[in-house]
Structures are given as C-alpha cells and as structure tokens.
Design brief:
single chain; alpha/beta; 7-stranded parallel sheet; 5-stranded parallel sheet; 23 helices
Amino acid sequence: MFKTYINKSDCLQDKGFVVYLGKPKTSIDLPSDSYTVFSNLNNNKLKSVYDLNPGLLIDGLSLVINIDEYEMFKEEFINAQKHLAYLYCKFVNYPKHSFKIGDPYGVRSENYVEILHEVNKLENLPLLLKFPVLDKLVSAKIKKPLLLLLPGPSLYDIKDILPELAGKCLIVCLSRTIGFCLERGIEPDFVVQLDTFQRQRHFYPPGRQFNKSYLVAIPVSPIFPFAQNFRGLFFMQSFDTQVLPNYYFLKRSCLSSLLPCLGLAEALAAPQVFLAGADLSFGPLDQQYFDQAEPDENHLPLELSENLRKDDPPIVHDGNFSVLDINREVVTTNLSYFATATEAEYFAQEIHHTTGTRFFNLTNRGILSCKYFPHADIASVLALKDINREIVRQQTDLAMKKAEKINNDKLNDGLSKTISDLEQSILFMQNCMAAQNFEEASKHPFARVANLFKECKNNFSVEERLHLAVNLGNEWLKSAKKAIKITCLHSMQKTDCRTPLVCLPEEENNLINNLTTICPNLNLSVFLISSQTTSPASGKSNSNWITFQEISDWLKKQRMVLVSDKVKQEYDYLFNILPFDKVISLSEAMLLSTPPAIISPAQNISDQSYNDPNLRLGYHYLKKGNKNKAKQFFMQMLEKEPDNLEAKTALRGLN
C-alpha cells in the first residue's frame, strides 16, 4: 500500500516503511529500521532519495510531507515523491500482484512459471529461429525522426494531420493504436508488442497484411497468429540466453509499452522523437483511444479533485488521484501512470546521453515532464525533410536477414526435459482429480497458476479451476511437443540434411514452386503419398512414392517429416495414433507464410516458370514491366481463389 500524508503521522498505515520528506512535526515512535528522514532536501541531497533500497518498501510505503519544507524545496520534493512512487510501483506493487514479471527484491513469497508466457514462446519458436534480436537493427543506424503513437486521449489531437506527419517521421505504434493508423490510411513503420495477454491478438485486423511494417516484440508475446502478416520481425531480446546469447538489451520496462517505444528510438538512433497520446492522465471527459472510436462528451470516467490547489504537492496513493498536468490543469492519474512518467524521464536522459536523441511532446498534454519532453508544434515537424522509406526498408530488410546462431542441441535438451516434466505433472493432476483428491491437486504449481489466471473474469469452483490448471498444462505440453519438432527441422537444415516433404500428387508442382520461391534455402526431398497399396506407374513424377501400407514403417525411420496441410488433414487419423510423433505440417512450421521482406525481389518473379496456367496473364504483365497491372491481376485472382499459393507468392513479391 502506498499512501501520502501532509504533516500528519498519527494515522500511518500499520505496516510498511515510512519516508519523511522534511522534518517530522511530531516525535517518531517507530523502530529505527522502519523509517527514514530526508530533511532540507536541496538538489544535492536528492541523490540520497534515489539511493533508497526498494527492498525496504516490500510491506508498503507511507510518505509524510512537511508542508513548510515543501514550500522551500518544491521541485526537489516533487522529484523525490515521483522517484519513491516509481520504486514502489515497479519493484513492489507490480511484482506483488503478478508473477509474470521479475522480482529482484523478493516481494513474492512464491514464484510460479507463467504458463501462457511459455506457451507463447514455444508457439513463436518458428519465428524465434528465423528472425534476429534487435541488435541487428541497431547496426543499420537508421537515424530518422520518429513519431510515437500512444493510446492516451490526446492522440485525437493529430488525427487530421497524421498523413502529413507520416511524410516527415517514421511511425511507431502499439497494438492498441494500430487501428488509429489504419483508419487514416497509414501503415506504421514499426509496431511494438510488449503486452503478453492473449487478447492482444484481437487488436490486429484478421488477415490484414502489413507489407510495409515491422513488428518489434518480446519472445513471450502472443504474436504467432499474426506476425507473418508483417513485412518483418525483430525480437527485443533472446528467448533463451543458454541457446542464443543476448548481447543487446533494448530499454524497456514492465510499467508501460511507452518505455520500449523510447528504447526503440535509441536502437534506431533517431535524432528527434515526437510523442502523441502519451498523456498518462485523464481530464474529465477523456478516455483512451481504443475505448471507442471517438471521444464521448457524456463520458466521465474519473472524478477530479476540486480541492487541489495549484501549489499543493500531489497526494500520491494506490488507485486514482488528482495531479496538475503540464498546463497546470487538474487531471486524474494513477500510481502506474505516475511511475511511468518518472521512468520515461530517466529513459529520455539516458538515451539522449547515448545517441543525442531529443524527445518532444507533440500534443502538449498530460504529465510527462516538460524538461525532458518539451512541446514541439506541428509546424516544426512538417518543416523536416521528407522520409525516403524505400531506403529505410532496404536497410531494415538487410538487418533482418542476418541469421542468429542457435545452439540447437541445448534447445533440444531443454525441450525434452520440459516435455518429461509436464507429462509427469499432468499425470499427477489427473490422478488426483480422478480420486477426487482436490486438496492434494491444489498444492501443485499448475493449480496455483490457475488461481491467478486473469485472462477473463470467472467464478470457478475448486474442481473447475483444477480442470483449468490441467488444460493450461496440456496447452504447454502440446506447444512443447510441436517446438521440439521445429528444433529438429532447424537442426536438419543447418547440417544440410535433406528434409522429407510429403504431399499429395495433385499439389506437388504448385507446392514445390511456392516453397522454392518463399524458402529458397530449404533443402527438401519430396515424397508423394498414395492411399493405394501399390505405387502409381513410374514416370508420372520425379518424386518418391509412399503407399498407404508403407507409411508407418517409413515414418519410423525418419528424424522428422514435413507434410502439406492437406496430407496432415487427410491422414491425421493415422498420424495421431502412431507411437512416434514425427510429423509437422507446413503451416505449423510457418513455412508457407514467410513475410514479404524474406521473399525474392519482385523483379525475379517474371523470370520464374509458372505452374498455374491461369496466372499466365499476370506473369505476362510482369515481363512487360507493368507491375501495377500485374498486381491488380493477382489481387483479382485471389478474390476468386483465396487459397491460390502461387498468386499469393507473386503478390507478396510485388509489395
């Protein structure tokens, strides 16, 4: 609990540490190790506040302000209060209420693996093995101005001018503001994904292609359903430092997605960064952008304090409280936003020191410090040089294609142990529940994780929550089993081992052509599967044939086998019951949905042979150099045949 008191110390909360800003008005009747006093707090003494150990605040923080000394040292007192709120929020409050984030000071009595984080990471593995950590982009030295779009109320202030601003700055947004860009015909250059809740995927329009956008994400974000719709992808950090050493750390924080956006500015060496929607506060009629399409004048989410005087110190506490914004207007904020504003100041100072980047508040609202985020008017941005995005994309594409060196053996060993441990845990839980020994089952870590499950509101019984725990474990196990197959495929390709690909006879030509275009380095050995007991007559194909009766013996001899989605669908009744799990589909391996930046350039499409005669006219346009007509043709073809992979490949190469 965080609570601020003015002059009073007789109503302090029962537990927790007490910080006196200014000499106490009354004698202190507390143990000497449960309080500290910062008196005559001039700027030189402020460092002693910054050095306070957050571990002292584990049981809560009471802040007592001497109003007389506050009048003498207003700026220092406010900075001290901001820093204390930041320490408490980041290192005590957040870790205490979520085991998803780090706990460096031992706030939590127990720690549990966040199962959905593990599931996200494992489902992301095809991406984690394909795309690099952000240090590759750092080396590209993009050095262009950025416009960061955050979801605060002031985002609406630039809605009419966004297209013009996009001509002068690279656009960086979040999942929660990507809709704001698309509604105005702007495709962002970078989308930052820090949030890990599964519902994040619903902010991305289903099937929407972002052929000009790069996703920047942490490995445990749920990006696997939509990441392949982007031009490319960079990860903020290694998914496992034992498997892939981490040499670069993007500045970020659990407090807010604003902070990795600032870190991305450092990675891109941006000379200027303009923020819009970074209010971290609300006026009487404000709401965040994504709450609804337009502000509602009848909306009153929070009550403002009418008693807050212009010269009063902010009364910071848990929950909502009133403060003065940069325009000296009364607004409402909360501990998380208040702490974020403080850490954003620290980030801005550090990044300016490393890259010389200057930060500006474009919308001139909210509680971000004017000292570190001074206001920049729209005219100053529009006076900048136009951005040449083609050059930026060339630099970024080149950086993205720098493959990481993955230790597949360690990755495989770790996944094998995870699978073994999960199978034992799930069996234990199921046995307990079959015997209706719910008390014993409730002691298992899976059950403890299920008790803290916050993906949706629920009123589960004990038995229902235990079923939830088992289901979470099964999701983790299913993802781990798929991940170990992905790792095996990756190892086979690294050692130039030919990977078996099984497909149906009628899809052979089209499928191989698409894989050759999308994954030119994929070393395949193609097999056709026959439901008959004898192979078709020779000469019909250069590929090998596997008859129905040979499937199980043939699979048993393989390390891992890729199958087309149609083969997986048609023969799943057999694959699912065989005593070895060696089959993975092209969709599961994400091999047919490679982002456009990885695909061969468009000019090479006109030189390739085509397998679908219906696409002849599109290739004819390409050979004549008429890319617009070719693009229009392939788009029309996809309207008629949405699953035409060759048309999809051609269109990706043109974007």
